[in-house]
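The protein record now logged underneath.
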Amino acid sequence: MKEAGARLLHQVGTLPAAREAEAAGADVLIAQGQEAGGHVHGRTPTFGLLRTVLKTTALPVVASGGIGTSKGLARALSFGAQGVQCGAAFLATAESFAHDYHKQRIVTARGEDTVLTDGFVLNWPKGSAVRVLRNSVTEAFDPALTGHDPERITHEVIAHDGPIPRLRQSTDSPLRTTTGDLEQMPLYCGTGAGEIDAIVPAARRLNALCAEAHDQLRSDRRTPTVGQT
């Protein structure tokens, strides 16, 4: 990609991975914390990982994981990040190709309604963990949310995208084109779900997120800290 002249943003979940990405020539590091929805690379909270990565690289760093509002953006910028990567906040928009069922579940969910599991692993290597909204499949896992072997999972068709079958415990989430038992499919979502309360146009969410974060940072700069006059 670098040889083709493209700018490369690489997502990492650990400090060693960040160092490897920088050495390989990445232009921007995305520090993904364990609060993120979808496939999660590390097990460190977002802002703890962000702080560590910022201390060890001169590259621009973007924060990812459980961030979907202006408060999270303002906090990341105050740490020294150059921006944030949002998942669920833009999945729950009018333009998103996710199924409306997935979008509505995000809107009504709270952060504690998500779980980290490697049970949705068909199509991926063993141990590939994802953060999803709780459903009947994860409830059947509980308390064994991890340790699932894709070689031992029955290939049971529960949905379709046109002629393409979707399997129970695969990594396929429901799209606009999906029909079938959507409840059993992985509904990717981070712990910031409780802060997303509506499906809106992406531009409206983006503009509000940035404008409110700007106002918050400006207000924080004007507020004296303890001992200041």
